[in-house]
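Session log. Operator J.P. requested a structure for one protein chain; no other inputs attached. Running the standard single-chain path with token output.
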Amino acid sequence: MKDLQFVTADEAVKGIRSGDHIHLSSVASVPHILIEALCRRADAGEVEDLHFHHFHTEGPAPYSEERYKGIFFDQGFFVGPNVRANVNAGYADYLPVHLGESQKLYRSGAIRLGAALVQVSLPDGNGMVSLGTSVDCSLAAVETARLKVAVVNRNVPFAYGDLVSIDSFDYLVEDNTPLVTKDFAEPTPTEMLIGRNCAELVPDGACIQMGIGALPNALAAQLTSHKNLGVHTEMFADGILRLIKKGVVNGAAKEIDRGKVVASFLLGSDDVYNFIDHNPDVLMKDIKYTNDPWVISRLSNMMAINSATEVDLTGQISADSIGTRIFSGTGGQLDFVKGATMAEGGKSITAFASRTNKGQSKIVPLLNPGAGVVTPRADAHWIVTEYGAVDLYGRSLQERAKLLTSIAHPDDREMLERAAFERFGPHIHFVKL
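Structure written below.
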């Protein structure tokens, strides 16, 4: 890298002005060295009123903390564990947006970026770099920001897909800190049952989208006997990687990007990051592409598999909040719900445990006051718990209440039946399914 002209992190962030909106590359690839430099400027009283935008981030998040009130204001597009308490305390905030449209906020000028702070790979022979594990809306940020700063990190994988010229950046900073990795707990017996119920809905040759965590890993573990699966998703982790290595995922049946695994951001083990490095079978793409319902709809047998915090008896799906408490974000759930249901043979699947860790039913008569509806009842199709799978498509409100009650925890069914009776009257008992 001796031909690259590097500056210090402190020099690179000097051009950030009070009032600027700042994009951070996200998830595993947060440019912490630049955030630390901005904190030093803030501590010196040089800047104020800086607004931060990003997907969920791993690692320290000082831009969300009370000590920087009036100086930093975090307005993330997705809320992760590192900022959740501060968001709900009011020191940081959540900006609701479908992840597929997050890039549009920048490109349309709805958010005018003063700076894009991203991590990139080493350049190839043509001077192109990869945004590695965080293409998402970072590509749009680099295109539109007034000041563009790249942390060149040899640990960022060179992933094919949407690349950026090294000459796009105003400043380059060298930092070879390893990317954040994440090991997810082994699935519980309940999660394995949910995974099995989901897997029964997935035909051979299907294309799948799912997130990360124990439940997606449980589903992946139940797909090992499937054949010719494809992947078109926001993100993937080690569960999908194991299916690729077993030959279950090969993309052979995909109508577009045949043979390719397509994603926009990643979080997992070093095995995942190493796998995508210089791998022509993986495309890391702009979130505008991965989450475009019209692109998704071109993939037959598209399986969109997402989760929920709670579902009411009419099929309204909350996934971003618990009452008024913001838990995560809208994410790309509705992007993929719409795309999958438009696809030939596609299915939208919402999977979750019937009860919370505290023993409360996630199938509820009414959503908690203040809860956000991420997927409207008219878009709710397959709902899956450890007790089974039901399809709400083409079903009336009374029919939905009975179907959802049937896959609730057995100890909660009487309560739900009583709530349905109170809402719909005695005729609820005579609906034949």
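Operator note: The two ends are 66 Å apart (CA to CA).
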